Backbone:
């Protein structure tokens, strides 16, 4: 799936699908040490009480939060976004529903941190209207790997050790999208760290539970 510049609501997969992909990849990278680190000091992809995060510590940061049954919000910033520099500046909150996390979004906006906001309700994504002259809102650079199924599977494959006869990364991704995941212990046994450090399956299990990809409460 390709994303236009600027992004269009139809460029994104359904929110439940995007959540499952992001959450699975974030969970397989979870460690106990990072769980204890404040979100402001973390990088990569992770999940906490606020939702899903992606921060490369330089060019891009994103958050996806569940806002109730069937409702999600996706917001963030990439250096490619022109919404803040457009004249006149683009109101990325225009038309947003009442259930958005307005205090957080306005705080980000006041600090010149917010590039775009997308919200999901009744099975469809939406965003503020953009002027014709806007070249990019950052969605492509921020979400392209997760919007494309093959690219998301490749990210997962970095942390999922291959096992003969077991589902590959693409198949596990499909299982997560259909959810909830089964045979979780078998998946945890396949966790690997591409940097060579020891894997942390307990942290992965907690992140999977927190994300809702598995049955039962999150382990503490």
Residues:
């Amino acid at each position: 799936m390709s994303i236009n510049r600027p992004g269009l609501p139809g460029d994104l997969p359904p929110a439940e699908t995007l959540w499952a992909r992001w959450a699975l990849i974030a969970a397989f990278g979870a460690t106990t040490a990072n769980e204890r680190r404040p979100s402001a000091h973390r990088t990569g992809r992770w999940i906490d009480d606020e939702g899903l995060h992606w921060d490369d510590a330089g060019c891009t940061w994103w958050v996806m939060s569940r806002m109730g049954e069937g409702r999600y919000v996706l917001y963030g910033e990439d250096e490619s976004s022109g919404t803040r520099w457009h004249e006149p500046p683009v109101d990325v909150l225009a038309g947003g529903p009442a259930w958005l996390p307005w205090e957080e979004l306005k705080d980000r906006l006041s600090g010149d941190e917010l590039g775009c906001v997308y919200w999901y309700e009744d099975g469809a994504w939406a965003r503020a209207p953009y002027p014709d002259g806007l070249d990019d809102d950052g969605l492509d650079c921020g979400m392209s790997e997760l919007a494309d199924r093959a690219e998301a599977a490749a990210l997962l494959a970095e942390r999922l050790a291959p096992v003969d006869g077991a589902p590959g990364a693409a198949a596990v991704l499909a299982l997560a999208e259909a959810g909830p995941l089964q045979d979780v212990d078998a998946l945890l046994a396949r966790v690997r760290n591409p940097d060579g450090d020891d894997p942390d399956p307990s942290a992965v299990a907690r992140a999977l539970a927190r994300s809702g990809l598995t049955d039962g409460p999150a382990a503490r």
Q: What stands out?
A: The mean pLDDT is 94. The longest helix spans residues 15-28. The CA atoms of residues 62 and 176 lie 21 Å apart.
